[in-house]
Amino acid sequence: MTERLIRVTGGRCLVDTSFVECDLLIDDGHVIDVRGARAGGTGTGAASVQAAWDGADELDVAGRRVAPGLIDLQINGGYGLDLATDPTAVWELGRRLARTGVTAFLPTLITGPSSRRSSLLEALARRPSGFVGAEPIGAHFEGPILNPDRRGAHDASMMVEPSAAVIESWDAASGVRLVTLAPELPGALECIEALVGRGIVVFGGHTTADAAVATAAVDAGMAGVTHLFNAMASFGHRSPNLVGVALSDERLSASVIVDRVHVDPVAVRLAWRALGPSRFVLVTDAVAAMGQPAGRFEFADRGAVSDGRAVRNDDGTLAGSALRMDEAVRNLVEITGCTPAEAVASASAVPARLIGETDRGHLGVGARADIVVFDDDLAVTDVLIGGEVVTRA
Ligand code: ZN
Question: Which residues does the annotation mark as catalytic?
């Protein structure tokens, strides 16, 4: 961690729900002071703080938007790297993700053998010394406790029913942060309660859950829905299913893949209006094809083909995305007309809150100095991770 003092000056920082003029002072990887009209910083002028401001290296971001680093709760790979094929690639993925404004992420494994999940947890525990990049802050197991009837690109033969044995070694301390499961499977509610009790966040997905089952799952502690609309029973006005519960029950958040392929823009607008800016979570669900030219890719033992926009298995099923998180932010603004602040929060403050990362997702005093700077077109110009400048315009 750097001991170098940095002041980030001249920008407009994301504070609550808007960008306001403010300067940040960073020391030892954290924000230690904030100055600005509405930023709520100290600005006290205490001599030691003033000396720190004066002695800090300046990062001039005049006129640009300064936001907390983006957090991706669902990413399977990118830049030709497939985490299912090689879990140890998680660190290289983190290095490369930083340029997209992502500063923390949950490496995600779709349904596969348990040995693969163990390998990812082992890889996460072996942080390379001196690593600087987007931080993998725990695993997202998207499977194997899913419904074969909504398998998507997953291998249905590897799916299992909930049991104490399947989740035996899963807990937050060993690096499992998020589990997606199908709540209609027998024993799923007990499984949700057990996982939540071990500090794991549970989302519903790859599921046929109807509204009654979905509500029971929320009562049991399910906090969100994985890629809303995709791989789940559709909304009907007499059969609202999990989609209807997600849109109407304020206890649930929902992740959405806003790549213009997975979900029609009309449905994105519907979800945005129903969920509002505090329950809508941007995820990429990116695979190895992200950041690469069109072509064929490895994805969890099966090939997939990217046309640069959509990634599909040979049978035509969507197999993750080629979406970058900064693109998702821009897409959300264009599709819904939401403010840039709201879109950025959907990829930072909201996911941070969902997984309990209290020192991420905001720029207040004490926050990690994970910072992304955007220009007026919401293109990423500068990225700081743990107070280190990793990308500079
Ligand atoms: Zn999925």
Answer: 285
pLDDT digits (tens, 9 = 90+) for 276-298: 999 999 999 999 999 999 999 88
Distance 89 CA to ligand 1 centre (A): 20
In this structure, the answer to whether residues 102 and 211 fall within a common structural domain is: yes
Measure 123 CA to ligand 1 centroid, in angstroms.
Answer: 22
Q: How far is CA 156 from CA 111, 151, 207, 316, in A?
A: 8, 6, 12, 16
Same domain for 247 and 121:
yes
φ, ψ of residue 372 to 5 degrees: the values are: -120, 135
| DSSP structure class, residue 247 | H
Q: What tokens were used for 258?
A: 């806003």
pLDDT in tens, 64-109: 999 999 999 999 999 999 999 999 999 999 999 999 999 999 999 9
| 194 Cα to the center of ligand 1, angstroms | 22
Residues 133, 211, single domain; the answer is yes
Domain span at residue 265 reads: 70-354
Ligand 1 centroid, distance to 288 Cα (angstroms): 15
